[in-house]
Every structure is written in structure tokens, then in C-alpha cells.
Specification:
The protein is of the alpha+beta class. The protein has eight helices and 14 strands.
Length: 264
């Protein structure tokens, strides 16, 4: 797939990943935000690289980053076309050195994610997509393949759960579905597992922020999948509240995933 802008964003994500990796395994200072989420030197380094590089690509296109100052975040309601960035998604995994963290860059236009890049610095893999151009993964060896969701087998489901935020409803679901396999992983890589047909269902019932999901949603949808709220509505962006509702990611829409999840 030839897309000059997408290739440039891939390079930006990889550069941010290299900047983050300079602090991987170190004893750098970890700060904590008001919501108790960690902020590392790697978050700051990746943010700096991404924001500066995207402003070179298009000085007129604003950037909404998890690490943006509050005054910039408050301006975003007037934006119709902008970048949404999580410089280091999975900071807890970064601190634990699990390798399961990502650099997320998305372009949002008219409330939907139209371009997405999810880069895993430790493995070197990049998942990427545009709304109309399909979804792909570039492996560490440089090989690239188009990815697709798979048809679910109700007797052999693979369900993705967050390492830190699975919650009682997901745990109850796994207990009910004796034949189901649970795949536990950190960061946006969970959405990518569904996108490339390695998992069927990822219920995320603990709220996320828009920068946590924008890039991965583009990849998932371009691969044939869905990211919806518990009422089946597609997740949108630049909402009044940047916090997302509970969401369900899946590839096969022939199964009633809400009913399978059960009542709250």
C-alpha cells in the first residue's frame, strides 16, 4: 500500500519508540498524575518527538496528546481535523519491563479515526491502517502483511483481557465459557490481536481516554472489526468528555457479544 502520509507517520512512531527505549530498564524518575497514572521520562521524550515531527509534517494541524498541557486540550472542541496521540500507551507495562507498551498516533477527522499507527518498540512491530486502505502489520524483519479479523468459533473463543483492568464481568464471562481461552496483554496491542485474527473479543469495561483507542480503532475497523459501546454505537472522537465509555472490540458481528457478556 502506497500512502506517503502514512509512511511518514510510521517513521514518526518508530522515532518516538527509539526515544522511549533510551529510558527502558533505567531508574528514571516516575511522576504520578492526578488520576494516579504514571508519567515517565520515556512518555515525555516520545511526546516531544511526536509533536515536533507532526508539526513539521503539517504546521496547521493541531495535536492532541495525552501529555498536552490543559490549555491545549481545552481548545480541541473547535478542531475538526487533528492528530490524537498517546506517546506511550501502557506506561505501567513500560515500568514493569514487560515489553507490552505502544506508541499510538491517529488522525481524527469529523469525529472518526481515519489513520492509525500502533508501534510496539520492544518487538519492532507496527500495526497501521487508513479508513479506506486496509490494515497491515510490519514485522520486525521488515516483512509486511495485510491483516483481517476472523470468524469466531463459539466453542473455541479467544477473549482478550487487560492485565490490570479485566474486572468482575469479564472474569465471570471466562468462568461461564469453559472452552474459551483468555489472552492477557497490556496497551493497544489487545485491539491489534483482534484486528489480526488472533483473538475474537476484547471487552474493555473500565473507561479509557480517546488517545488510548483512536489509532487502534482505525486498525481494527480497517481489518473488518468493530469498536462499539455497550449500546452498539461506534466509538467517536472529540466528544464533550475525552473519557470513553465501556467498549467492546470484536471481529465477527454474527455473535451478540453484549448478550454473551451478560448483565451488569
Amino acid at each position: 500500500m502506497k500512502n506517503e502520509l502514512l509512511e511518514q507517520v510510521l517513521e514518526v512512531a518508530e522515532a518516538a519508540g527509539r526515544a522511549a527505549m533510551e529510558h527502558y530498564g533505567g531508574d528514571g524518575l516516575v511522576e504520578y498524575k492526578e488520576d494516579d497514572s504514571p508519567l515517565t521520562l520515556a512518555d515525555k521524550a516520545a511526546h516531544f518527538v511526536i509533536v515536533n515531527a507532526l508539526q513539521v509534517l503539517d504546521p496547521w494541524l493541531p495535536v492532541l496528546s495525552e501529555e498536552s498541557p490543559e490549555e491545549e486540550i481545552s481548545e480541541r472542541k473547535s478542531w475538526s481535523d487533528f492528530w490524537v496521540v498517546d506517546p506511550l500507551d501502557g506506561s505501567k507495562e513500560f515500568i514493569k519491563q514487560s515489553g507490552e507498551f505502544t506508541v499510538n498516533i491517529a488522525r481524527v477527522r469529523g469525529g472518526e479515526s481515519v489513520l492509525g499507527v500502533v508501534h510496539a518498540p520492544v518487538t519492532g512491530e507496527c500495526y497501521y491502517a487508513t479508513r479506506e486502505g486496509g490494515a497491515f502489520v510490519r514485522r520486525a524483519d521488515g516483512g509486511t502483511e495485510e491483516i483481517f479479523v476472523r470468524q469466531a468459533d463459539s466453542s473455541d473463543l479467544k477473549i482478550v483481557a487487560s492485565k490490570d483492568h479485566a474486572g468482575p464481568r469479564v472474569e465471570a464471562l471466562l468462568e461461564r465459557l469453559q472452552g474459551a481461552e483468555c489472552v492477557s496483554m497490556g496497551s493497544s496491542l489487545k485491539f491489534c490481536l483482534v484486528a489480526e485474527g488472533k483473538a475474537d473479543f476484547y471487552p474493555r469495561l473500565v473507561p479509557t481516554m480517546e488517545w488510548d483507542t483512536a489509532a487502534a480503532q482505525c486498525v481494527l475497523e480497517a481489518a473488518g472489526g468493530y469498536l462499539v459501546d455497550l449500546d452498539g454505537r461506534r466509538l467517536s472522537y472529540n466528544k464533550d468528555d475525552l473519557r470513553n465509555p465501556s467498549v467492546l472490540a470484536y471481529g465477527d458481528d454474527s455473535i451478540d457479544w453484549v448478550a454473551l457478556l451478560g448483565e451488569d
